[in-house]
Specification:
The complex is a heterodimer of chains A (606) and B (174). Chain A has 606 residues and is an alpha+beta fold. Chain A has four domains: 129 residues, Four Helix Bundle (Hemerythrin (Met), subunit A) (Up-down Bundle); 56 residues; 181 residues, Heat Shock Protein 90, CATH 3.30.565.10; 140 residues, SH3 Domains (SH3 type barrels), CATH 2.30.30.40. Helices cover 46% and strands 19% of the residues of chain A. In chain A, the strands form five sheets. A six-stranded mixed β-sheet of chain A has the order 10-14-15-13-12-11. A five-stranded mixed β-sheet of chain A has the order 2-4-5-7-6. In chain A, strands 9-8-16 form a three-stranded antiparallel β-sheet, with no helix packed on it. In chain A, α1 runs antiparallel to α2 and α1 packs antiparallel against α4. With 174 residues, chain B is mainly beta. Chain B has one domain: CheA-289, Domain 4 (OB fold (Dihydrolipoamide Acetyltransferase, E2P)), CATH 2.40.50. A six-stranded mixed β-sheet of chain B has the order 8-1-2-11-10-9. Chain B has a five-stranded mixed β-sheet with strand order 3-6-7-5-4. Classes of the chains: A alpha+beta (606), B mainly beta (174). Chains A and B meet through β17, β18 and α19 of A and β4, β5 and β7 of B.
Amino acid sequence: MVDIDFLPTFLDEASETLERWESVCLKLENSASPELLDDLFRSAHNIKGSSKSVGLVEFGALVHRAEDVITRMKNGEIKPNPSAISALLECQKSLCDWVEKLRDEPTFVLPTQQILAKLSEFLQVKDQEKMQEDLGFGLFDEEPAGNKSLAIKAPIHKDLGTILIEVGSASVQQIEDAVKLQSRRLGEVLVDTGVVTPDTIKAALEIQKGIGHKQDESIRVSLRKLDSVIRLIGELSIQHAIVCNARDVGTLNEFASVDAIGLAHKVIQDLQSETMSLRMQTLELLFQRMERVCRDVAMQQQKGIQVVLKGTEVELDKTVIERMKDPLVHILRNAVDHGIEDAAGRAQSEKPAIATVTIEGIQTAGNVSIRISDDGRGLNEERILRKAIERGLVSASAKPSKEEIHQMIFLPGFSTAEKVTDVSGRGVGMDVVRRAVDDLGGSIAIESRLGHGTQFLINLPSTLSIVNAVVINLSDKLYAVPVQDVEEVVDMSSVQIERTTQRGRVINLRGRILPVERLATFLPPHTQDSIQSERKSVAIIARHQSTTVALEVDGIVGQQSIVVRQLEGKLSQVPGFSGGTILASGEPSMIIHLPQIVKSYASLAK
Amino acid sequence: MQESLGLHTVVPLESQGDAADENKYIIFALGEEYYGAKLLEVREVVEFLPTKSVPNTVPSFQGVCNLRGQIIGVVDLRIRFSIDAPKATRSVLLVFDTESGAIASSVDQIASVSVILPNDVEWRPNIVSSIPSKYIIGIGKLDQKMITIIDLKAVLSHDELTNIERSKMLVKEA
């Protein structure tokens, strides 16, 4: 029986231990020191113990098998050769997947036969039998059709009847009969008609509770940061007590107030930055996972690579890290699969046999960059352009610059791989990368030299909760627009506005012809009465994919840092907005989601 | 009826608190009529806060307000229920925590918090009203006054706020 209450704690702990497992394995590949083996053994042993204590029997059994392999390695009976380590890494991968599944589905059981068999190859047959006896349950057998033992096999199903059928406590017919009788709860009816016992129902209900339960995420925070937050809160309450006291005894005059506000300001600022940093995590784990991806692809294709990790101590918001995981996997798979030549190719171009992939975290003011570079064959601009024209993604007469060609690999439906491998080449992926980075408000640049390698530079905001915003005025109402969405601000009185058709207006901005539309059009009931060119107005230039439009507003109030508040419930579905904020005046304000507005403009124009 | 009332008022001591709270209603005014909502469902009652209108929303959505740093939507119940009466100068907000987040409704004033016993309520009456009958829990009698008890939480959590007809915007992908 899985212990629902302790499961989340176990899963968090297991994820962490499995990460350790992975990093130790990767190190073992280079040097097999006894310390590393001890470390690995400890990881496996801990996880085995705790998985059994929360009732994950099959989980524990798989770890137990891996632990046996590690023990043999420690005793020198098995050599920590690449194939053995690969098996351990594969086992780690299965366990990781398992842990992720368990978060949504506490009764999930991963089919483990294959991986168990693989690990067993390293153990002798005789010992295997002995171990099976020791464990007291058949590792290769199907789960015995447990009549009253409600252990673990029920998958996603959510209602009680289904679970009871699953564990074989009741037949489909019995449940259906009971449902027909059902003016009372299904469980009661089943007990009364003698199909199942009250205990069985109770156990099934426990499982049901666990399935519906939504897991909270947790995060590991350094004690130092937490202490510092607590200290600042303490300071703030002392400050508060002093002010209250001064008010009570009547000494809170103008000077004292100014002093108090000044002090509070300082403490609150510190508190804000400390609290924000609680969400920050180092890039280490993300990079480690990426190293693993490179290694797996390289192994599969028999390419020799070394992965260099730099700047792993740089910190990034947890959400940003999570959302960057898949895009980075895409980039790295592409880099190893297409970028790096095979052994013959490398020899031919006189490069070192072992290719290098560098993953680097760089901290800049307010931003974090991730740089991925390889010393492979580089992007072939000619071929990219040819392919893009072939697929009708750009017009044949276009004369794009080198940078523009590089950006073409991010177009949806683009793939240059001559043949599709199971790693990459299906033309999906790179556009996903672009979208993910755009959604986070970042940017991505490519540098490449044919024959020398490719470099991706991804710029990301280090946090999502405080953004720099332009405050705009629309009929005397203020709205915030994140600076990253605004390409530039144009004074409309300084440019020539031309009418093209009845309604359509365009401006010529340094040679670029841009359509003009009032932002109010997308935000009814703001009136759009004053489409008069003599009216002094300002436009913000916004771009989304291939559409760029000048959106007229009534004025720009200024630029300020705003704290983004997520909107709740139905309010979050109102189109045109990405969130809300409180302006310095204390008034609430909506944050306009310009990309969505430009997208709507593009669909109107069609 | 008299007898059954007698039975109902005998409540075991330990459960008295719960039962009493169950029967408590917050009584508020919209125009000249009085309405009630379950007290236990109300998260808080706050004095009038300035609201700011939000484009692309339905007319009954008054806008958003700043409730101690949280941005909360406000539904104007007079417009929602087509109550035709001059607007009170300072309204009061009833804040609810629904499954889809916090949301408030503005009412003219709070009259009282009162106990209405189940027997003084006509449950699920069949009446024609400007309020959809699925939201009317019952009509309660309180000091000779008739109180319409509304499932305000359901009203607030079910209402769509986005004005699709007026909007030129693409509807957000879920």
